[in-house]
Design goal:
Layout: H1 5-9, H2 15-26, H3 29-41, H4 45-73, H5 77-84, H6 91-123, H7 133-144, H8 147-166, H9 169-196, H10 201-209, H11 218-231, H12 238-244, H13 252-282, H14 286-292, H15 299-309, H16 314-346, H17 352-372, H18 385-423, H19 432-459
Helix pairs in contact: 2-9, 2-13, 2-16, 3-11, 3-13, 4-5, 4-10, 4-11, 4-12, 4-13, 4-18, 4-19, 5-6, 6-8, 6-16, 6-17, 6-18, 7-15, 8-16, 8-17, 9-13, 9-16, 10-13, 11-18, 11-19, 13-15, 15-16, 16-17, 18-19
The structure holds phenylalanine.
Length: 460
Amino acid sequence: METPDILERGNWGSKIAFIFAASGSAIGLGSIWRFPIMVGLNGGAIFVFCYILSVFFIGFTVMLAELTIGRHSQKNLVGAMKFIKPGTPWKGVGFMGIITGICILSYYSVVAGWAAGYLYKTIKGAFMGEFTWEASDAVFKKFAADPMAVLIFLFLILVITTFVISKGVKIGIERWSKILMPVLFILIIILSLRAVTLPGSGTGLSFYLKPDFSGFNLNVLFFAVGQAFFSLSLGMGTMTVYGSYITKKDNLISSAGWVCFSTTLVALLAGIIIFPTLFHSLQLTPEQFKQDFEVSTGLMFQAFPVIISKMPGGYIFGIMFFSLLLIAALTSTISMLEVPTSYLVDEKKWKRKNAAILIGIIAFVLGIPSALSNGGVKFLTKLNFMTIMDLIFGNITLALGGVLISLFLAYSWKVRNSLNEISIGSKRFKLKSLWTFNIKYLAPVVVTLILIFIIIKNII
Ligand code: PHE
């Protein structure tokens, strides 16, 4: 039987359910896999410092903007822009978000597939006993270069994602996130406690947490801003769609605050696990790290088997960790697929199931070169295909989307109208003037300048 459209949308059961679902979208491989890589590539603590500032000043600002646009319009980003400013080209920002979402989904699912593969390996007992960094590195390289394995796991991830999305947002996402996110959180805290008690962990911690301001440059800031957008699922309409399911009773400001806070905390803890483990295992100094260590897309997959092997009950820990990582990744892939799907359902009146399947297939095809680019097949370019996709869609178009969403809210819809929407469900907005300044000037100007700098530097 067909479900009428109106039933296909639905609301979150409560504010807390929304926070879990939105954090479920935000917390994922972005915080646990991508953030440490960015830290490693961009000078350590100075990157962490820029990332925290970016989340506070830009991430929170755009998060609240997206939630507000979503709840006001009760639509996806394309629909919302058409609803608020009909007949204007603003809806193009929504289309850019849809393309970005599909492209990120394609390579993100490859990494989620690695997590699935690692769960399988852990269950089979591949990481038992004392496990060195070198051994772990060899396991990763072999696995990522096995074309059959990575493609099968990529396929599996997209099938699960498509299945959940085709069932509709409420039963799909809410149920999973509510139970599992807190468990992941506890597990990460336990692992980070183990990591900081390793001998020699101090060097890793100081690389990670003691900023060397001489290492600052605009590249670091660019990647920090990009990471803030990526990890908070901003700039492509995910939070707009999620906001469209929030009820008028709920407080948008504190919801946005909680999602930013919990995501940043998980990212920071992931680094606390990975860097002490790395510096301890390879007995590195920060200078040696900068000179000799090659940070690869496999950083997280190299580090976790090592730290897990150092836990009492490591086998069970490993299974729990990789299961939860997989689920965290799935709650994020689900939110990516929700963006194009809700567009086709709401605007084009497609059936949810058909929309989800079509986009799932496109993401799979697009994901193949990324899946094979980590050693499986030699490509013409020297750069890794996945890295290029991530640079374009994980940094540039997300940040550009964030700029355009800010400009849309501030200058087309107008700040005072959005403040009216925000005030429904939240009595006081303490940071009102700061947010107004940020959405009108800081976020669009700073991010635009950084984007221009990067484009000039790399292309011209
Ligand atoms: N925020 C997710 C993560 O960190 C990734 C994501 C990006 C999800 C953009 C949706 C949209 O894992």
